[in-house]
């Protein structure tokens, strides 16, 4: 059984791109929310040197800020298709977790309100990673790290505008062109809260009702009891290729309970779906907010599982899954 590839590629292609194979950010004007010291100037991240040792003067570095950011101004407006990030390698690599890549033509809020195209998850042993996405028009590329008391360090940012789309590494965020595959699917979870009152508000199906209300007692969030490795899972209507998953966190309390959650996608229910391929790991989501997580690879499956790899309580107020149903020859 083979996937009908032309159908998928026709959906993903974008006409009229300005093609460029060169790094558009090299030597361009760069600024940031603050500068830690003389070694951490913003232009260091576009100097063409990807040295990851901060003391070698080739990385940017902010102070401890609320919502720190870094921005590069491209020579003109491009249809940007990918951004390559080189993280700090000598220490502190986890500081970048949860940073957002935003692209557009506005300087409102220092450019941090421009279109969200990708979220940087834990890089592990990697220091350099490329994020590909649907062509996005803009002159400004921002790296924005939401949260309090955060440091943003970048050792190189490369920006490209080309016509090469590789579905296996696509980072799709234009969910307006894709249906929410989870809506009114079938959901289950590892447990219910021990309090009968709270249990009535925390049913698994609440997380796919199309309502992002983030207060548990308003009946639109799921919640497990406190346990080892709690999980929630949705069965999609059809086996699908999935590009991104959006999670809405609780807003009434306990927003930190979701930190470290894993999103997994596949066709197995072994270990309650927690052995399926990893799409993304949640660094943190602000209270009541919705964050989009691009899968680290193009994943196919019928089950989407969100789980905590530790003891805790899992609560989600909406889970949205974006992709396309798998179309087989003869279907």
Largest sheet: 6 strands, antiparallel
Order of helices and strands: HEEEEEEEEEHEEEEEEEEE
Shape call: globular
Look at the helices and sheets and give the structural class.
Answer: mainly beta
Helix amount: under 10%
Query: Which fold does the CATH topology of the largest domain refer to?
Result: Jelly Rolls
Q: How large a portion of the residues is in β-strands, by DSSP E?
A: 35-45%
Q: What is the residue-averaged pLDDT?
A: 85
**Please, what is the CATH homologous superfamily of the largest domain?**
Galactose-binding domain-like
CATH class value of the largest domain: Mainly Beta
Distance between the termini: 10 Å
Care to count the β-strands?
Answer: 18
Number of domains: 2
Given as residue ranges, the uncertain stretches (5+ residues, pLDDT < 50) are 1-18, 164-176
Continuous helix count: 2
Q: What is the C-alpha radius of gyration, as a whole number of Å? A: 20 Å
Q: Just name the CATH architecture of the largest domain.
A: Sandwich
Family: Belongs to the fucolectin family.
Pfam families: F5_F8_type_C_2
Function: Acts as a defensive agent. Recognizes blood group fucosylated oligosaccharides including A, B, H and Lewis B-type antigens. Does not recognize Lewis A antigen and has low affinity for monovalent haptens.
GO molecular function: fucose binding; metal ion binding
